[in-house]
Amino acid sequence: AIFDPLTGNQLHELEAHSAIDVAQFFANARDFQVQWSTVPVGQRAALAAKLVDAMISRQDELMDMLQRETGKSRAHAFEEITGALAAISYYAKVAPKLMRGRDYDTLLAAVDELQNPRTTARPGTTKKPLSPTAQACTDLLASAEGCEDIITQLIETHPRLERQTLRQLTRACFAADKKQDDAASKRSRTKLSHYVSQNLH
Prior knowledge:
It is a single chain. By secondary structure, the chain is an all-alpha fold. The protein has nine helices and two strands, in the order E-E-H-H-H-H-H-H-H-H-H. It has helices spanning 19-36, 41-57, 59-70, 74-99, 104-115, 132-140, 147-157, 163-179, 182-199, and strands spanning 2-3, 10-12. Strands 1-2 form a two-stranded antiparallel sheet. Strand 1 (2-3) and strand 2 form a beta hairpin. Helix 2 runs antiparallel to helix 4, helix 7 runs antiparallel to helix 8 (163-179) and helix 8 (163-179) packs antiparallel against helix 9. The N and C termini lie far apart (52 Å). Mean pLDDT is 84; it is low at 119-123.
């Protein structure tokens, strides 16, 4: 339930979900993402722009709700709503340019491979080889001691890669793994995959 922090009155009753329910929600979201990825970026940007228009038309209502649910001041509620509007507007405007010519299918496949490695193959089948990006990232993260040699090999073959950038990205991955911080590890590996994918030519 959601309570008004100023009055203590209940505002909303939220439905409780089990771990199985949550897992199914995530599975459904992943399935929908496959469909969403086929929508041209221009159409997605147009939908984001429509969302901005809808939020602006109901801005006072959104601010009222934010204040009731969190106890924020009007000024802070205004900052949150306008911050969201600015972020959505910005990406609606620049997304078509940012995504132009990017091989996101390759990038997402590499990220998936790093996060869910297929270490075994079904009997009677050949293990699917890693994509070039996933293989490069796997080699880089195989060991902290041998990472510098792998960086040198990659730079010699792919001159668009920068040594200092690769060092920083791989160190972030090793640091997150050492802390056993799954969220940070996922973020750092995604950043590494993105950088390698865009410069592995």
